[in-house]
Amino acid sequence: MTVPVVCTPIFAVAGPAVGSSGSSNVSSATGPSNQEHPDSNNYADDCPNILIVSVSGATDSTVRRNPMSEPEAKPWSNWLSSITVPTGERNADDPGTVGWVYVPYSSTYGLGLLDPVTTYQDSVTEGVASTNKILDDNKRKCGDRTKYVLLGYSMGAEVVERVSRELGHRDDSALVNPDDLAGVVLIGDPYRPSGAPSLGEPGPSGGGFMSSEPADYGRLTGKVVYSCNPYDMACDAPKNIAVLELALGVLGQMHFTLLNPGQAVSDFAAVIGAMTARSIVYIVTHKDWFDSDESFLDVFLEVSDRSYDPDAPDRDLQLTDEQVLNAITWARGPGSKVVKAKLEAEGAGFAEDNSGVVDLVVKPYIFLGLIEHMAYWTYNPNDPWYSKSERIVDWITELARSEKSVSNSGN
To answer: Cα–Cα distance between 121 and 401 in angstroms, integer?
Structure first.
């Protein structure tokens, strides 16, 4: 016997949770306006078998976005509707199977005209908080009746990466744990591991331009799929481009106000100063660092992301003047030979870590990169091509029908 479920709308006012790591200008999302309504096939408020939690790319969301509204899809906006809406249409004959929401967050690069706007890294932090809030709120409401698919594109894929890597390591006592997720879809992911398959087929040989190292999704391993076009530099960047990764890490913490260029200068000085301080803390607190293979450039890359290793004991550690002085005295005296050897090795390591920069010019990244990054959104089941959007719709639909079958068998 099926017990009727009384569902109350929770998504119309969903907004990013504000925590200590969030941006200070985060505000709650507003309810739907008279011109904004959910798609007729969207059952997000009715505890569907599958809820797609969609995180849009840069400039395609705001902190005040109504997660349930379905604005008109355009070539330059609302790209993920090329997956969510067709998924709803595919399941229209089976009401309550699927629903979807769009995560509200700033999704900005820090580029503004008059006033500073949220930086890239702060936007990602907002997106992570907002995604987790939507998952938590829906789990409290729907319990085990709903499973989730996380869907992210570009900057949104970085948000989903961070949520998935953390969520995959939660234990069963967590409100939302790995068993609650049916799947994860990462499109144009700047953290895609080098050579990872693309929708079940061999993928491009490159990897994410922010990191192409292997990813640890814990218990979500096997539930994650990537979609990556060749020469999309977000997910198919050449290996060994450490300088570019470092530059992006620095720029991602800066504001760029067109009518106040001094803001960028002061931000740059502040970011470099903060990174230097974090680097010193990192090196001093890792006693075996000078004997390791990790280079100074590796450390700078690590700390250029302000959310790096948030659970590490040295995350917010402040060194005393005495500790810094002792470290400098050691480096100049008893440890001078070790430091010199480390610096000599840095040169060869630097060349190796940046050997792929030439490929950015030699290969057609400059000409095709943006085109390939925008070429995921063709959905036309009547044409002869089986597009990436269609494949993702089929994959999510299969997950939804599987969850529906399990749900029905348990009633």
So the answer is: 37
Summarised one tens digit per residue, pLDDT across range 221-258 is: 999 999 999 999 899 988 866 667 666 666 666 666 66
Q: Which two tokens stand for residue 212?
A: 């192409």
CA–CA dist 163, 156 (Å, integer) = 11
Please state, in angstroms and rounded to a whole number, the distance separating the CA atoms of residues 278 and 272.
10
130: its two tokens? 């907002």
**3-state SS class at 380:** coil
The residue among 175 and 24 whose pLDDT is bigger is 175
DSSP state string for 390-410: HHHHHHHHHHHHHHHHHHHHT
Query: Both tokens of residue 4?
Result: 């009727």
Spell out the domains of the chain, with CATH numbers in brackets: 11-239+367-409 (3.40.50.1820), 242-355 (no CATH)
Q: Is 69 within 8 Å of 22 (Cβ atoms)? A: no
- Please tell me the pTM assigned to this model: 0.74
pLDDT digits (tens, 9 = 90+) for 160-189: 999 999 999 999 999 999 999 999 999 999
Count Cα neighbours of 96 within 13 Å in the Cβ-side half-sphere: 12
Q: What is the pLDDT of residue 238?
A: 84
- The alpha carbon of residue 34 and the mean position of all alpha carbons in its chain are separated, in whole angstroms, by 31
Q: How far is CA 357 from the centre of its chain?
A: 24
Neighbouring CB atoms inside 10 A of 121's CB total 21
In the numeric block, the tokens 């607190």 are attached to 285
Place of tokens 């960047």: 237
The pLDDT-based confidence of 3 (bands split at 50, 70, 90) is very low
**pLDDT tops 90 at residue 128:** yes
> What tokens were used for 81?
């509707």
301: part of which helix (H) or strand (E)?
helix 296-304
CA 37/CA 68 separation, integer angstroms: 7
